[in-house]
Specification:
Shape: globular
Oligomer: single chain
CATH superfamily: Gcn5-related N-acetyltransferase (GNAT)
Helix content: 10-25%
Strand content: 25-35%
Distance between the termini: 62 Å
Number of helices: 4
Number of strands: 7
CATH topology: Aminopeptidase
Number of domains: 1
Structural class: alpha+beta
Order of helices and strands: EHHEEEHEHEE
Radius of gyration: 17 Å
């Protein structure tokens, strides 16, 4: 089994894995068009030409990215594939010199084993919630927000128990202003 950056030829397999979990309410559906647009965000785990797992790293802000669309085929679970995929995305975040990565997940224990800590969802920037418009659970979100600080790039000490308290983001004023009638 190897992990590697995804290619456009992987989109059908990625879509199949996402659809499997989306039908169970475990992740959001993503169209083929969305996947082709975001293919550079994805890593895949492959064995003998078969895609066994997927994971994406989506940049959210200058110092923050989301680990998303983590899925492993049922027949391939408990083999370390999810851990390898998250590791690949975290390494990509390090390469990009990001300070933090986060996940919105139902698998709190899994992410905790990888060093992520649970935070209040309100600590994440509003931009994170733009995908929630498509979610059937948007009015009653039950996902858990978890953050991993990458100490080599963080502006504070990772040993600080309050390190995640400063996750609040100030979004700059838009460059375009819409004039409304008075």
């Amino acid at each position: 089994m190897q992990t590697r950056p995804a290619t456009v030829q992987d989109v059908p397999a990625i879509a199949t894995l996402i659809s499997t979990y989306a039908q169970r309410g475990r992740m959001l559906f993503r169209s083929h068009a969305e996947l082709y647009e975001a293919i550079r965000d994805f890593h895949v785990a492959e064995d003998a030409g078969t895609i066994l797992g997927i994971c994406a790293l989506e940049i959210v802000w200058a110092d923050l990215a989301e680990v998303r669309s983590l899925a492993v085929a049922e027949a391939a679970q408990n083999r370390g594939i999810g851990r390898a995929l998250v590791h690949a995305t975290v390494e990509e975040a390090r390469r990009l010199k990001l300070h933090r990565v986060f996940a919105l997940t139902y698998e709190e224990k899994f992410f905790a084993k990888l060093g992520f800590v649970t935070v209040d969802k309100s600590a994440l920037p509003l931009k994170v919630w733009s995908a929630c418009i498509k979610c059937p659970k948007r009015d009653g979100c039950d996902e858990i927000a978890m953050v991993l600080t990458l100490p080599e790039h963080a502006p504070f000490t990772a040993d600080d128990p309050n390190a995640h308290e400063e996750l609040r983001y100030e979004v700059p004023t838009p460059l375009v202003q819409i004039n409304t009638p008075r």
